[in-house]
Specification:
With about 350 residues, the chain is an alpha/beta fold. It contains 14 helices and 16 strands.
């Protein structure tokens, strides 16, 4: 995989740069520009070297969304000239993008002289703009792509110990390989989020109306001594939020978050860990009363001296609400732009988009 620093004779050439500007938009405005800002160093580098830029991104799942809010916000924060940077259309507007159509990949390739992948967060998708274009053009990794790989490998190759892995979010079936892997690699694996519902149910506890995946293989994992499950939870009972023991949930209740006792139990582990890997929120953060544990633990993690790797779009969204701007400056912290891509990389050590650059 070659870095953009190795490109020679850039001046006057056109760079096709695959970015992931699939950002949340509300009322025609970008709500979170984290991924856009992370791509700017690569774009600025290429422009300073004399390249013309064509940015390729998708927005939404079906390609019907207009890129206009993204384009407007991009030029506002980047201060770049429209004569230097142009946007291709929402790439998922074309059926050939997800179908890996050979004619589409050739047509895209003809737009530029070389290709740069600066879209780690979508590089787990074997789509045309990720794996097709590199077949036809000299291809390179952007700065953020390199940073993602360098930092995430710290949790795979010779990780520091004690090593704490915190895993939240949902979709137990897709995270089973990750849990099994890090029960071997890490010293402690703490489970929260909707994943916890599956574990509690497997233990024979009532989970009420909470989200469950009904995945197989949990009972054998429950025996692992590295596994840490919250001893208490916050439930929604009617209109009330109640903190109670994990084995006291009633049939008409919904588990919203990890409880206060469990948050306190996790704090000493955070303080003594030398490496902390965290993916996914610990509760239903978008629901009132479901984000408290995630925020409290984030504050403790931010203050820690451990090497910290944070991934997952939902978790990054909670992080941004803390107004903890200082985390960006701390050399011991890395915040990944990926969600599913981060999980896949941690599980497999590579992604289709990375392989395509090799």
């Amino acid at each position: 995989m070659r870095s953009i620093k190795t490109i020679k004779n850039i001046k006057g050439k056109t760079a096709l740069v695959r970015v992931d500007f699939n950002v949340p938009i509300k009322d025609g405005k970008v709500e979170d520009d984290f991924r856009i800002r992370k791509a700017l160093p690569t774009i600025n580098f290429l422009i300073k070297k004399g390249a013309q830029i064509i940015l390729i991104t998708h927005l939404g799942k079906d390609g019907t969304a207009s890129l206009e809010p993204v384009i407007k916000h991009f030029f506002k924060i980047s201060k770049l000239s429209k004569s230097k940077v142009e946007f291709f259309e929402n790439v998922r507007k074309f059926s050939g993008e997800m179908d890996n159509n050979v004619h589409f990949e050739r047509n895209l390739s003809r737009l530029g002289d070389f290709y740069v992948n600066e879209a780690f967060s979508v590089s787990h998708r074997a789509h045309t703009s990720i794996v097709g274009i590199p077949k036809h053009l000299p291809s390179y990794a952007g700065f953020q792509m390199e940073e993602e790989i360098k930092n995430l490998l710290k949790a795979i190759k010779n990780p520091k110990h004690p090593f704490l892995f915190i895993l939240g979010g949902a979709k137990f079936s897709t995270k089973m390989p990750l849990i099994k892997k890090y029960l071997k690699l890490a010293d402690y694996v703490f489970i929260g989020g909707a994943l916890l519902d599956d574990f509690l149910k497997a233990e024979g506890f009532e989970v009420g109306k909470s989200l469950v995946d009904d995945s197989k293989g949990i009972k054998e994992i429950l025996k692992n001594k590295k596994l840490i499950l919250p001893t208490d939870v916050v439930v929604k009972s009617g209109d009330k939020l109640i903190n109670k023991k994990s084995n006291e949930v009633k049939k008409d209740e919904i588990i919203l978050d990890v409880g206060t006792e469990s948050v306190k139990l996790l704090e000493p582990l955070i303080k003594k860990s030398k490496l902390i890997l965290w993916n996914g929120p610990l509760g239903k953060y978008e629901t009132k009363g479901g984000d408290k544990a995630t925020k409290e633990i984030l504050k403790t993690v931010i203050k820690s001296k451990a090497q910290v790797i944070i991934g997952g779009g939902d978790l990054v969204e909670v992080l941004s609400t803390l107004k903890a701007k200082s985390y960006k400056l701390k050399p011991n912290m890395f915040v990944s732009t990926g969600g599913g891509a981060t999980l896949d990389f941690l599980a497999n050590g590579t992604l289709p988009g990375i392989k395509a650059l090799g």
